[in-house]
Design a protein that fits this description.
- This protein has about 300 residues and is mainly α.
- The protein has one domain (about 1-305).
- It is about 35% helix and about 5% strand.
- It has 8 helices and 4 strands.
- The protein has helices at about 50-65, 125-145, 165-175, 205-215, 230-250, 260-265, 285-295, 295-305, and strands spanning about 1-5, 70, 180-185, 195-200.
- The protein has a 3-stranded antiparallel β-sheet with strand order 1-4-3, with helices on one face.
- Helix 5 (about 230-250) crosses helix 6.
- The longest helix has 22 residues, at about 125-145.
- The protein is globular, with a radius of gyration of 18 Å.
- The termini are far apart.
Length: about 300
């Protein structure tokens, strides 16, 4: 079975830091609800590497919406793209989880970053509605990429989900459709209610059923997502600090594409530094230590830039 989140992302379950490459079933829009993407590549998605890119887009959007809630996260309620990952170590066995002292985790000096760029204004009601229809079309294109002969069902819009009811509504829809529900929790939330939800299943019927649920119960997109200036800032943060910080901890990071290429093709370019399959950071304590030593873009913006 292939696990997929409610944005159409195919990848590992959120509780695992393994690098995830989302399948492009639905092009990830550069925006999200109220600026907050359901699957940010940040907080919620941090350990999911999508949690890395996703996070960025969400963050950037959040910033404009609520006095700076920006959303770097990528895919927003609409897609399946990317999650660039660090190349997994060929020798890393899926069950290897060696224990290392957190004191072994190091940080590097933060470079002199440029001020964070201004975000674009929120979408109008008409633009949000156009975005909902556009995302539904993109989501269906994702289905066709796997099943070219699939017949698109007539799905009625049942209303937008909110942060409060999103998981409950989608869980009920997925279960009614016979899909296996995948729930995840954010970093540090081990016992509380789930923060994210996805599904897994087999075959065309399951993919279409999930499409119907996600299309009937989307998240309202009110922010345009990161603009080119914001994406350029994110790229600089990734290449000047985040990737070097991961490398300082022995994590292999693939060579990045050129800045202009990465910005222009976002969120379609799958380069994004991550822990990948490094077994050391499957340990919660090590994972937390690395997150503190090498904060990803959304964490840095939320905890440092917004605090200034």
């Amino acid at each position: 079975m292939v696990p997929v989140d409610s944005n159409g992302h195919h990848g590992a379950a959120r509780g695992n830091r393994s690098c995830a490459v989302w399948r492009q079933s639905e092009p990830a829009p550069r925006d999200h609800p109220g600026g907050v993407s359901p699957e940010p590549f940040g907080r919620l998605n941090r350990r999911h590497v999508s949690g890395s890119i996703d996070r960025v887009t969400r963050l950037l959007a959040r910033r404009s919406a609520t006095a700076a809630r920006w959303s770097l996260a990528l895919p927003v309620a609409s897609v399946i793209v990317l999650a660039g990952c660090a190349a997994p170590s060929p020798d890393a066995g899926p069950t290897a989880t060696p224990t290392e002292p957190t004191s072994a985790v190091v940080s590097i000096e933060m470079p002199d970053l440029a001020p964070y760029p201004e975000s674009d204004p929120p979408l109008t009601e008409a633009q949000s509605e156009a975005k909902r229809l556009e995302d539904a079309d993109r989501r269906w294109q994702g289905v066709l990429s796997a099943y070219p002969d699939a017949v698109r069902p007539d799905v009625a819009f049942a209303g937008y989900v909110t942060d409060e009811n999103r998981i409950e509504v989608l869980r009920a829809c997925y279960q009614a459709a016979g899909l296996h529900v995948e729930e995840g929790r954010t970093f540090g939330n081990t016992d509380g209610p789930p923060d994210s939800i996805g599904w897994s299943g087999d075959g065309e019927a399951d993919v279409i059923a999930a499409y119907a649920c996600d299309t009937a119960h989307p998240t309202k997109i009110t922010n345009p997502g990161p603009n080119s200036a914001e994406l350029g800032w994110i790229y600089d943060y990734l290449t000047d600090f985040y990737a070097p910080c991961l490398e300082a901890n022995g994590i292999e990071v693939p060579e990045p594409p050129g800045r202009d290429i990465w910005v222009e093709t976002w969120p379609g370019y799958v380069w994004f530094p991550s822990v990948g399959d490094d077994p050391r950071f499957r340990e919660p304590e090590m994972d937390a230590a690395l997150h503190e030593a090498c904060p990803d873009p959304d964490t840095f913006v939320l905890t440092v830039l917004r605090a200034d």
